[in-house]
Amino acid sequence: MELEDSPAFSAVPVEKNEESHCICGNGRKTVSWAVTLKSLGKVNFTATAEALQSQELCGNEVPKVPMFGQKDTVIKSLLVEPEGIEKEETFNTLLCAPETEVPEKLSLKVPSNVVEGSARATYSVLGDILSSAMQNLQNLLRMPYGCGEQNMVLFVPNIYVLNYLNETRQLTENIKSKAINHLISGYQRQLNYKHNDGSYSTFGEHGGTSQGNTWLTAFVLKAFSQARSHIFVEDSHITNSLTWLSQKQRENGCFQRSGSLLNNAMKGGVDDEVTLSAYITIALLEMPLPVTHPVVRNALFCLERAWESTSEAQGSLVYTKALLAYAFALAGNQAKRRELLQSLDKEAVKEGDSIHWQRPGKLQEAEAFSYQPRAPSAEVEMTSYLLLAYLTAQPAPSSEDLSVASHIVKWITKQQNPTGGFSSTQDTVVALQALSKYGAATFSKREKTVTVTVRSSQAFSEEFQVDDANCLLLQEVALPEIPGEYSTTVSGSGCVYLQTFLRYNILPEKEGKVPFSLKVTTLPKNCNGAAAHRKFQIHINISYTGERPSSNMVIVDVKMVSGFIPVKPSVKKLQERPQIQRTEVSTNHVLIYFEELTKQALSFSFLVEQDIQVDNLKPASVKAYDYYETEEFTIEEYSAPCSAESEHRNA
């Protein structure tokens, strides 16, 4: 038996001076090494077993070497992570040559409490506005996909990518088959959240939800209708949902809300009947249904009346007005579209060469971030709706519309995460739709190559070429100096999207005001006996302490202590509790979903057991976060009760 040497670890055999082992027929032997890891990320272990010729007797027999299968090799990878809490910063910019004369500067900094050796940075060059999303269609969000709304992020962006690449004549067989496979599996998975009456809800009928959700049903109806040009979608899934929605339409054309909306962040937003009606009208027009369809005609009547009565009001209606502008644009009502865009232009935030919209009273707390904070989900969403409104003009958007659109795109692309998505579900879906529409409206073949050069203030330098043949590819390089100063120059002709992704771990610090009260304890307290070292219970107590009466959907993410895995039946049992909608076990995490949390504390616990013996155990983290307002989170740590770390703490 042999374990191959690697610069990533050092390994010492547990049994000294034993190179070979005698194994009788049907026998077994365990060989162990004590391993010390030296690098982060995926580390491969390559173990080889070989049958050797030998004259020594094994038991009472002479060893036989088989003719075939004398040697076998197994490669297993192990994920090595730094301790503490992972933070990530993304810097996105759009540079065009030859307009960009001055080199673009980038300063990578890490805080003083960074875990040593944990900082790593990647610099990417993308030739197309959707390159990043195309490379990551199954992983646009660094979040779990366990409910009927989140699953749509695995489904809908594939439609926009296929349509965009078709329109710009860039679709390859490889991308097409990948996107269509995602569509088929996303479609099948979405049916798990369908009710018998044709509606959909976040956790489906089996999640204890008795009513369908108006908003989610409209979202699914639109997506399934648009997907039909690429995959087979059963007619009944469309007709039943449309029938159910039309039954929710009042006499005045507006839609009544059914089912809970998990996102209460948009005040004057989706809680309100006009906004919900605008959202549903957009979905129906995007299916597309004609404006003459009775349900659409009545819905537009509702929106026109609503806009007349609220057009004087300012401020809180930004989100609603963004939806109305796009709804009227889709309906071909140019006068109303223009009127709304003029009204919203007064409320736009214009910074440098970018334009966006934000919720009134929601000031960016830039000091809380080291740099470039990512905008809240609702602001990305409303700005994306306005981009769609600027691009949806008949017969075509004017040069003035496209000029405003380019400034909006500058801001939206700055908010993208490393995988091409955004903060949450709706902002990702709407932003990718808007970016693909902008990309198609402004697409032109590259006549020349664009050369991108990134340099550090020290010796590092890397050059990238972007041309027609490779513009959909993601080209990237690791940046070696952190902290460090970098600059980028572009030459040639055309635009490129640049993305720098910095990750590092920090040791948790008690922050000031936190939105959740989170307490984590482990049992047993007594470490006598071997069983206490092999199995323990994680007990969590949580409540919402933020400014609203209740939170949005909350996910509690419990990371396992190294070498321990959850006892699955004890996790599954948590779903019997009315407040817990769903649980998932994902690699070394347990995820628990709450539809909402209030000031009233909830307690729950589950078991974990040892899978691999690990020495010098470090604490693991439990993170509770609001799914829609991801900047609202709380983190606590816990240790295995019988690890040296926790025993030292208790001493």
Automatic annotation (TrEMBL):
Transmembrane segments: none annotated. It comes from the Eukaryota. The keyword Flavoprotein does not apply. Pfam families: A2M_recep (PF07677), TED_complement (PF07678). SUPFAM superfamilies: Alpha-macroglobulin receptor domain, E set domains, Terpenoid cyclases/Protein prenyltransferases. Residues 551-638 form the Alpha-macroglobulin receptor-binding domain. InterPro entries: A-macroglobulin_rcpt-bd, A-macroglobulin_rcpt-bd_sf, A2M/Complement_sys, A2M_TED, Alpha-macroglob_thiol-ester_cl, Alpha-macroglobulin_TED, Ig-like_fold, Ig_E-set. Keywords: Disulfide bond. PROSITE patterns: ALPHA_2_MACROGLOBULIN (PS00477). This is Alpha-macroglobulin receptor-binding domain-containing protein. It comes from Pipistrellus nathusii (Nathusius' pipistrelle). The lineage of its organism: Eukaryota, Metazoa, Chordata, Craniata, Vertebrata.
